[in-house]
Amino acid sequence: MNLVLWIVAGLLAAVFLFAGGNKLFVSRERLAAAPGGAWVNGFTPGAVKALGAVEVLGAVGLVLPAALGIAPVLVPLAAVGLGVIMIGAAIVTFRLNEAKHAVLNLAYLALIAFVALGRFAFAPFA
C-alpha cells in the first residue's frame, strides 16, 4: 500500500507541478485558447497566477515532506488542499458545460482522496 501511495502521489505531484507551472508562466490568453481553458476568462490574471502557485506548492507538499522526513503529516494535508481545488475546478468546468474536463477533475479528486485517506488512515508515515 505504501508503494502505491508513493506512486500515485508522485504522479499527482507531476501533474499539479505542470498545471501550476503553466498557470504561473503561460499568458492568460494562451491558457484561454487551450482546450478546456475557457474557465480562465472568469478569473483575474492575479487569481490564475495565485491558483498556479497554490498548485505548485501542493505538488511539492505531496512528496517533499515525506521524502525529507520533515513533517510528513503535510502530505495528506497537501492532498486535502489539492482536493478542495479540484472540487472547485469540477464545479467551474461543469458550469461551463465542459463535461469531459469536469470528469477529469473528478478523477484527479478521486486519486487525491486516495492519497489523503491512505496517508491519514491506512499507511501513515511513522
From TrEMBL:
<dbReference type="GO" id="GO:0016020">
    <property type="term" value="C:membrane"/>
</dbReference>
<keyword id="KW-0472">Membrane</keyword>
<dbReference type="Pfam" id="PF13564">
    <property type="entry name" value="DoxX_2"/>
</dbReference>
<dbReference type="InterPro" id="IPR032808">
    <property type="entry name" value="DoxX"/>
</dbReference>
<feature type="transmembrane region" description="Helical">
    <location>
        <begin position="74"/>
        <end position="94"/>
    </location>
</feature>
<keyword id="KW-1133">Transmembrane helix</keyword>
<keyword id="KW-0812">Transmembrane</keyword>
<feature type="transmembrane region" description="Helical">
    <location>
        <begin position="106"/>
        <end position="125"/>
    </location>
</feature>
<feature type="transmembrane region" description="Helical">
    <location>
        <begin position="6"/>
        <end position="26"/>
    </location>
</feature>
<protein>
    <recommendedName>
        <fullName>DoxX-like family protein</fullName>
    </recommendedName>
</protein>
<feature type="transmembrane region" description="Helical">
    <location>
        <begin position="47"/>
        <end position="68"/>
    </location>
</feature>
